[in-house]
Design a protein that fits this description.
Main location: membrane
Domain ABC transmembrane type-1: 135-313
Order of helices and strands: HHHHHHHHHHEEEHEEHEHHHHEHEEEHH
Protein name: ABC transporter domain-containing protein
Distance between the termini: 60 Å
Transmembrane segments: 23-42, 62-87, 143-162, 168-189, 252-272, 284-302
Number of helices: 19
CATH architecture of the largest domain: Up-down Bundle
Number of domains: 2
CATH topology of the largest domain: ABC transporter transmembrane region fold
Subcellular location: Cell membrane
Number of strands: 10
Structural class: alpha/beta
Shape: elongated
CATH superfamily of the largest domain: ABC transporter type 1, transmembrane domain
């Protein structure tokens, strides 16, 4: 993991605050003199009260002096609480901005990177910088303000402490150094166990999310998987609690040591000041003034140590976040090449393996798809069909070889640049909690009503819309809105067809979107797609060979390689693997 260091990360956060919230930046520095002045006034008020009584000061001037000090203290307390509240509120705003930025980066990262286990783990660790115990993105303003207050308070009060007894400075500094070095130990220990247990966090998040996901609720209940979820969660949570308890124990030991030093400090301070009173070197008024000064000085030193520890720990969390941002920003860059104007697709010696894997999923693929040709890519599950589609769409990048669209190498384009030329429906389709119209027209900035009505009619989705209470303005995903509806599987397919037709992209891809339907329904839908998308390059993916007989050419993939290609008739006449698979599958449909 790339480490930037505390100072660089601190500067990064302060720069972010200065650029995004100037008021928050000013509040950090505004609170420092207020926080230093307050303990001085708290110590000075009882001293003034006692000195006035001892000196028998004239009543009116005495009361006026006490009133002015009390008013100054009250104003200081009010200002301090106001600034603290503003810092807290503004800090939450800053955390919200980072949270938004995290999701923005995660959504825009190259699709291929999301397949890596390290990506999910990196995302989980990044969350710690936003929502963890030390959410540094939200607490940085508070930590900075406390650090500056402690540092400047120590400088301001040091001459007063030296005046009382120099040895107190030594004791207080020993306490500070102990806390400081123990804080370094805690940070290093935290980093070590975080790295060791990042897989545990990923498993916990996975189980927590899946257990309450409506999509899986029926399976969980039908097959009594709730016990498994509970036991799995309990197992991983106990594992996490074990290392959290270890860290908590180390923190407790640090707090205990700090408490012992406070006890020694206060005991020595009381002993020395009481001795000074009995020897007549100071009076009661000076005693009540100096003791809170010593306490404040010591508290600031402890606070300084605490803020440094929090900055170090927070810096570790921020490294995870910034590394995640760097990973997301390291997308394939555009070389400024003009977009293809023709849409024939050519793959030359293409091989592919997933990130963090040594196994080739596709091996030396050579394939040429002509513009407006209807191609079927078939094979058993796991043969590499979807991986091939991801490569063609520039969602994955070849490990070896090249892919050309309209004679242009896809390596010259960013992922986003080429996506507009594709219209695709995948096996698992995301239905957002939006209106039907917004879902269908999602690919364009503005809605074209004529185009929308044609897409709805051609897809066969018009009847469904007319039966809904709000027609095309009906919201989907019932779990998010009371007035929303859920569509059936077939209706969802019609919705997706309408979206593809509205997009009107030159290359159409259907990656087994009908796998959950029966073979006859799948065949009908594929043929309907074919009729509605004439004059387009179309690629149909299926493991059911009967659904794609209408295609101009069929490509059979097995174990990551193209083993046969041709029309349905030529492949059947050849009597090879395709014919064998087709005949086996047909027995399930005909019973012969």
């Amino acid at each position: 993991m790339k480490k930037r260091g505390v100072l660089r990360n601190w500067g990064y956060l302060l720069k972010n605050i200065a650029e995004t919230d100037k008021l928050l930046f000013l509040l950090i520095f505004a609170c420092v003199p207020i926080a230093i002045l307050m303990p001085y006034l708290q110590a000075f008020l009882p001293r003034a009260v006692i000195e006035g009584l001892q000196n028998k000061t004239e009543l009116q001037s005495y009361l006026l002096k006490i009133l002015l000090i009390a008013m100054a203290l009250a104003v200081t307390v009010l200002l301090e609480q106001t600034v603290k509240w503003l810092l807290e509120m503004k800090g939450q705003d800053q955390r919200g901005r980072f949270s938004k930025e995290l999701r923005k980066h995660a959504i825009k990262v190259d699709y291929e990177k999301m397949a890596a286990v390290s990506f999910a783990q990196s995302f989980d660790l990044s969350i710690e910088a936003i929502a963890g115990d030390i959410a540094i993105t939200g607490q940085s303003a508070n930590i900075t303000a406390n650090f500056l207050t402690s540092l400047l308070g120590i400088i301001a009060f040091a001459p007063l402490i030296i005046n009382i007894q120099p040895i107190l400075i030594l004791i207080i500094f020993i306490s500070f150094l102990t806390n400081y070095f123990y804080g370094i130990f805690l940070t290093n220990y935290d980093e070590k166990i975080t790295e060791q247990n990042k897989g545990v966090n990923r498993k916990l998040h996975y189980i927590a999310y899946k257990s309450i996901n409506y999509k899986y609720a029926k399976d969980i209940r039908l097959y009594k998987m709730s016990d498994w979820f509970f036991k799995s969660y309990q197992t991983y949570n106990n594992e996490r609690r074990r290392w959290e308890r270890k860290l908590s124990g180390k923190r407790f030991l640090g707090d205990l040591i700090a408490g012992l030093f406070v006890f020694v400090r206060d005991g020595l301070a009381y002993f020395y000041l009481i001795t000074q009173i009995f020897t007549g070197k100071i009076g009661i008024a000076q005693f009540v003034f100096f003791f809170p000064i010593i306490t404040s000085f010591s508290d600031w030193l402890i606070s300084l140590s605490t803020q440094i520890t929090e900055l170090r720990t927070g810096s570790l969390k921020l490294d995870y976040l910034r590394n995640f941002f760097d990973t997301c920003n390291d997308n394939r860059k555009s070389k400024g090449a003009p977009l293809p104007v023709s849409f024939n697709i050519e793959l030359k010696n293409v091989s592919y393996k997933y990130p963090e894997s040594d196994k080739l999923i596709l091996k030396d693929i050579n394939l040429n798809i002509k513009q407006n040709e209807k191609i079927a890519i078939v094979g058993v599950n796991g043969a590499g069909k979807t991986t091939l589609i991801n490569l063609i769409m520039n969602l994955f990048f070849p490990t070896q070889g090249d892919i050309f669209i309209g004679g242009k190498n896809t390596k010259d384009y960013s992922q986003d640049e080429l996506l507009p030329i594709f219209g695709a429906v995948f096996q698992e389709t995301f239905i957002p909690p939006e209106t039907i119209k917004n879902i269908i027209c999602a690919s364009s900035d503005s809605h074209d009503e004529t185009k929308f009505q044609k897409a709805v009619k051609d897809s066969g989705f018009e009847k469904t819309i007319l039966e809904l209470p709000q027609k095309e303005n009906t919201y989907l995903v019932k779990s998010t809105r009371k007035e929303a509806v859920d569509l059936s599987g077939g209706q969802n397919q019609r919705l997706m067809l309408a979206r593809v037709l509205y997009r009107d992209a030159p290359i159409l891809i259907l990656d087994e979107p009908t796998a959950a339907l029966d073979p006859i329904a799948e065949s009908e839908i594929y043929e309907h797609y074919n009729k509605m998308t004439q004059n387009k390059t179309s690629i149909f993916i299926s493991h059911r060979l009967a659904s794609t007989r209408f295609c101009d050419r069929i490509i059979l993939i097995e174990d990551g390689k193209i083993i046969e290609e041709g029309t349905h008739e030529s492949l059947m006449a050849k009597g090879g693997k395709y014919a064998e698979m087709f005949n086996i599958q047909s027995t399930y449909y005909t019973g012969k």
